[in-house]
Design brief:
single chain, 351 residues, alpha/beta, Four Helix Bundle (Hemerythrin (Met), subunit A), Rossmann fold, 7-stranded mixed beta sheet, 4-stranded mixed beta sheet, 39% helix, binds 5-S-methyl-1-O-phosphono-5-thio-D-ribulose
Length: 351
């Protein structure tokens, strides 16, 4: 593990890093039993890492997209050392391909648009200069995300009651960001004040980000965490065992409707029924003011294998039709508040 020192008392894992010889990724498919880093060197490899979810989580996808553009620029600057227009064209093709890899998390398109804007404004003369400008922008996207996560933690810790039992879904932690996390960043910050708080993590079918990643990440810092299946959450609430629900987001529309990991909507409905506050934690890079409501959010549908293959066995009759949307949309009216780097506001007041 490569620790990233943030405050004197907090260290979080760093899952993605731009290096001179490539991009270093912590392979999230292999966690928690294998902590394996790989170094990738091309935009194609980055596309593969994104689609297979070696790297995942909305802010980390944005960073991965930007770093992927850098990998493309480095390769094309060699191929077209004396031909800047051809270099730029090839990088733009890769940028567009990277942007298409996962459609729901707006951070990916947002970060790639920032990289394309650098290219559009570029007034240098050599491909090498272009590479250097793109590296700077990509690293800025990373650094800004880390700062936003820490700011969300500072704001969000205020809404966590002492001794709170917090329910979270999927993984919105250091693994899903530059470090520290969004929903888990709030939990980390609150835990600094109050080590009596406890976390319930839903397993998050079908990819099990909760069981594999959130539990692992929280255990690294000795934050008490109990695992449950997604279908147990409403019953847990009914027993009076949840004080607050905190989740991340993949895209928030102008009206506050929020796309996040499939299962988030059910949690929000159950929280409403049990009068439990439900907070979304996301940087401003996840807010998409270009769309009015959640109806315009494209939901990624993933392969049926994710549902039926468990421990290398097909658990369902061969050829069973499967429904596998990776995200759902929680209507703004079910959201108590949205925590961004700027503070806490109602979902309806974002635009
Ligand atoms: O499919 P994933 O694992 O990329 O989905 C991740 C989520 O839904 C997270 O909750 C969201 O991206 C926020 S991460 C800070």
């Amino acid at each position: 593990m490569s620790p990233l020192t943030l405050t004197p008392s907090v260290q979080t894992v760093q899952s993605i890093q731009l290096e001179a010889n490539g991009v270093r990724l912590l392979d999230q498919v292999r966690l928690p039993h294998e902590v394996r880093y790989l170094t990738i060197t091309s935009a194609d490899e980055m596309r593969h890492a994104i689609t297979t979810m070696i790297v995942r989580g909305a802010p980390a996808l944005g960073i991965a997209g930007a770093f992927g553009v850098v990998l493309s620029a480095r390769a094309n600057a060699k191929a077209y050392a004396q031909n800047l227009p051809s270099c730029m064209l090839a990088v733009l093709v890769d940028a567009d391909l990277l942007a298409e890899t996962r459609p729901t998390a707006v951070n990916l398109q947002w970060a790639i648009n920032r990289m394309k804007a650098v290219m559009a404004d570029f007034d240098g003369e050599t491909s090498a200069e272009l590479v250097s400008m793109l590296e700077k922008e990509a690293q800025a996207i990373f650094d800004e995300d880390l700062a936003m996560c820490q700011a969300m933690g500072r704001h969000g810790r205020k809404i966590i009651p002492r001794g709170a039992r917090i329910l979270t879904h999927c993984n919105a932690g250091a693994l899903a960001t530059a470090g520290y996390g969004t929903a888990l960043g709030v939990i980390r910050a609150a835990f600094e004040d109050d080590n009596t708080l406890q976390v319930y993590a839903t397993e998050t079918r079908p990819r099990l980000q909760g069981a594999k990643l959130t539990v692992w990440e929280l255990q690294q810092e000795n934050i008490p965490v109990t695992l449950l299946t997604d279908s147990m959450a409403a019953w847990l609430m009914k027993q009076g065992l949840v004080d607050v629900v905190i989740v991340g987001a993949d895209r928030i529309a102008a009206n506050g409707d929020t796309a996040n990991k499939i299962g988030t909507y059910s949690l929000a409905l159950a929280a409403k029924a049990h009068e439990i506050p439900f907070y979304v934690v996301a940087p401003s890079s996840t807010i998409d003011l270009s769309i009015h409501s959640g109806e315009e959010i494209v939901i990624e549908n993933r392969h049926a294998d994710e549902l039926v293959w468990i421990h290398n066995h097909n658990i369902s009759p061969e050829g069973t039709p499967c429904y596998n949307p990776a995200f759902d949309v929680t209507p703004a009216e079910l959201i108590t508040g949205v925590i961004t780097e700027h503070g806490i506001q109602t979902a309806q007041s974002l635009s």
